[in-house]
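Troubleshooting entry. The earlier prediction with zinc ion gave an output that would not parse, so I re-checked the input for stray whitespace and re-submitted. Clean input:
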Amino acid sequence: MVLLVELQFLGGAEQVGSLGMVLKDGTHKVLFDYGMTPSDPPEYPMPIPPGVEYCFLSHCHLDHSGMAPVTTRGPHTQMVTTELTRVIAELLLMDSLKIARAERYPEPFTYKELKNWMTRTVGMRREETFRLKGVEVDLTSAGHVPGAAMYRWRGSKDLLFTGDVHTRPTHLVGGATPLEAEILVMESTYAGREHPDRAEEDERFRKEVESVVGQGGQVIVPAFAVGRTQEILMTLAECNYDIWVDGMGRAVNEMYLDNPSHIRDPKALRKAIDAAYIVEEPYDREVALSEAEVIVTTGGMLDGGPVLHYLKALHKNPKNAMFMVGFQVEGSNGRQLLDSGAITFDDRTLRPKLQIKTFDFSSHAGHSDLVSLARAVRPKTVVLMHGDNREALASELRKEFDVKIPLNGETFSL
Ligand SMILES: [Zn+2]
Ligand SMILES: [Zn+2]
C-alpha cells in the first residue's frame, strides 16, 4: 500500500503573506510556519485545526512567524526553529504587538502567550535533525536571512519545505543548501522575475553613494532591521564613510554576532558593524544628522521608525538622497513615495526634493534560481506556494515535474 501525505494551506498559498501549511502523515499532524500580513488592517491565516503536535518555523519574518504565539496556546504543541530565529522572532513579534496597540488593531495574541511561546520553542542548530516518533526532520540553510531554515520531513514520503529561499550567497549569508526529496514545497515570490547581477548592483550602489557624498550630500538608506541593515553595512565596508545605524537593526546586529554559525563571514560582519556609529540615544540622532554621510535606519518601508525623523530633516536639500534597498509593498509610505513623489505621515504631506533611487538587494531566489533549486532537489512533485504569479513558474516546471498550485484552504493528497 502506498502511503500518502495530506497537505492544506491555512494561508499564504496564493500570496506573499500569512503563510501556514498543515501536513498530515499517518498519525502525525504538523504545521509549517504560521504568519500574518502586516497590512492595514492586518490579515491572518485560517485557524489551526485540532491535533497539531509540532510547528516548524522557517524564519523570523512576520509573514511566516507573525502568529507563532498562537501555535503554542494549547497544552501540547511545541515549536521548532533555529535558535537565531527564535530570538529574532521574539523581537519582531514584540514589535508587532506594539504596532497593533498603537494602531488599535485587535491583538492576535497576548504578551503572556508570546512569553509562553518562547519557552515552548526548541532552538536548533543550523544543520541538525529533529526526531519525533518514527519521523526525522532535517534542518538545512535556506539562505534568505541568517537563521532561515528549510525542513526535510522524512516520514512516509520525503518532503522539503523551503520557507523563503535564496540560493546565491550575499555578503551576509551563504546560499541555500538543498536536500533531495520526493515532494518539494517551494516559495515562488519571484516567479516570472529575475534579479540583476548582485555584484553589479553592489557596484552601482557604491558609485551612487560616492556621487552623493562627493558633492557634500547625505544618504538615507531605509532598511529592514533583519538582514538588510547588515547587508548594506557590509556592502559599504571598504568605503570609509561615516555611517550611522539607527533603529531595531542595532539589536539584530548583536544577535547575529552571537550566532556566528549562520553568518557567511562573521569577522567581516563584525568589522562592518564596528566601523559604523550606533545611535544609542536621542542626542546621537542630532549628531548623526550633522555628521553622517550615510544613515542606515528602520523602517524599511517608511511606515514608522527613525527614518521619518531623518527624512523630515534632510528632504529639502537636492544634494541629499534616499536609496531604497528593500521591497515597498502596496499601501506602504515607501510605495506612495516611489509612485507619486509624495509621502504622508504625522498628518502632513512632504514632497521631498532629495534624490530617490531604488536598488535590488532582494534575499529571494529569482525565477531561474527557483528552477535550478527544483532540479537540485530532484522531486517528483513540486508544490508552489507563497507567490501571486505561480503560473509563470509552473508552466516551466511542468516540463520536468508534476506541479501543484494549491488554493488556500484546499486539502490535497500526494
Ligand atoms: Zn522572509
Ligand atoms: Zn515570506
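This one parsed fine. Residues 198-358 form a domain with the Rossmann fold fold (CATH 3.40.50.10890).
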